[in-house]
Sequence to fold (601 residues):
Amino acid sequence: MLAFGMPAALTREDVAKIASLANLELEPSELDLFARQLGDILNYAEEVQQVDTTGVPPTATVLPRHSADRPDEVRPSLEREEALANAPDAAIDAGFFKVPRVIG
Amino acid sequence: MADLGAMTVRGIRDTIRARTHSAVEVCRDALARIEALDPQLHAFNTVVADRALARAGAIDREPERWRDAPLAGVPVALKDNLSTRGVRTTASSRILESYVPPYDATVVSRLEAAGAVIVGKTNCDEFAMGSSNENSAFGPAKNPWALDRTPGGSSGGSAAAVAARMAPLALGSDTGGSIRQPAALCGVVGLKPTYGRVSRYGLLAFGSSLDQIGPITTTVHGAALALTVLAGADPMDATSVPEPVPDYAAALTGDVRGTRVGVPRALLEQGVDGGVSRALDAALATLRSRGATLVDVALPHARHAIPVYYLVATAEASSNLARYDGVRYGFRAAPLSGAKGEELRTMYARTRAQGFGAEVKRRIMLGTYVLSAGYYDAYYLKAQQVRTLILRDYEQAFAQPDAVDVIAMPTSPTPAFRIGERVEDPLQMYLADVFTVSANLAGLPAISVPCGFTADRLPIGLQLTGRRFDEATLLRVADAYERETEWSTQPPPILNR
Fold:
């Protein structure tokens, strides 16, 4: 069976953990606010647990079956300069996006 | 000079074809109205006056080339989550405040190939997440019928722009009602096509299994003309479907004799404003008087549509918005200080913290949670299963032998609400999407058409939902209703000042 023992409320620690998974740095005040608001929304969403879905397949897409295959051909794409033009930090001539140092 | 502001998509196209007015005159008229009214309405994030006039001038210089173009010289406003090559595209977010796309969305290329003239990019809720436009990082758009009220959302700027006759046509995107609800609240027509009908290439993604682009216009005929241009398979979007594209305007016969209109009475019992309820009944009576048959339909699982929608859409959003990380485009937080070896991760987390607004963060968090280990089955998988049941209800209603052709309900349970009224309580804001989210979950086409006013003169929308890829029937019924009424021809008070 599925885990039905859902938390009735989210703690600050729960919210901090979700924020870390989502790569979001939250203020202490946001931890409290989101704990309350996300808890409210999840409590409301509990109602879907009451629906009998025995043997019901999940729907990930409503698309009718159709073939989206295409020949594997080389086609023009963005010029490197255009692709780098919006980067906050880039080495245009070398053709790189630049990020903070990741190794010591 | 004729009142160009009162003209429809067809009227403007025909006046340019007949050379009664030039494309430049029409464009100047639209730009003048934007200049006069936008300081009050804030419908636009960006206006591209010079680009628009240059484009209109090019159309005027080659009348032979453009004579048969379906939208020649028609001014169009684009929601600011549709990519425009060389024109800033922000999704009303700080994180994309200075982003200039290097390519056009397919809908943009199609509109321009059809002769349309882009006048600007419209305000919306950040990344299309919201029902009031209040989640725009640049401040809310206002409702032309009452400046202290929201135009709805998320395509609020597009709906406000069309309602205030700043452009006869605007594009919006609709993930859970974001075209139809603002159209209803602003007294204009809004169409969400079938999932797969219109290419999403170049639309900044929110919920990839739900998003569709569609037109907002003053008349159903305008929406039909626009859809004929927008629809069709696109090699750049593998989810666009190669169904034939009919001439939708030719389907508008004005005849609804024998058309079966389904009414989900049980669903309508929950929390509908009295004025909205009366307007719906009157609209149904009008359709019946023109020969349509009203049929009760049961959509027993539609009442679960809101939790299902907010579980599915936020899961997809949390994944789609992972790309905004301060590396390839957009805002990057500075200065960077973090534990040694953690500089990159700190940069990501701080960029996203400063770049996204509260509602976007809330939805990313909710989506991350429902996809996380231990909760995936209970929330996300369960929601996808109930989505199947919602979809089956519609399939059954549209199936033989008691098939209905369209299903009618209000677009929004209430008219436009006051700015600030619902911002403190996200859940209350979500609940107002009760009648719109099902069409997205089921992938069905749906249209909102004006059907009256409340006692204090706020517009009300009638929503019709149709069969998959049968926009022709949907538009025919909506147009037949529109012909019997005069709601669409009434301008908002901001135009009378």
Q: What stands out?
A: Chain A has a mean pLDDT of 88. The helical segments of chain A are 12-21, 28-45, 80-84. Residues 28-45 of chain A form the longest helix (18 residues). The two ends of chain A are 47 Å apart (CA to CA).
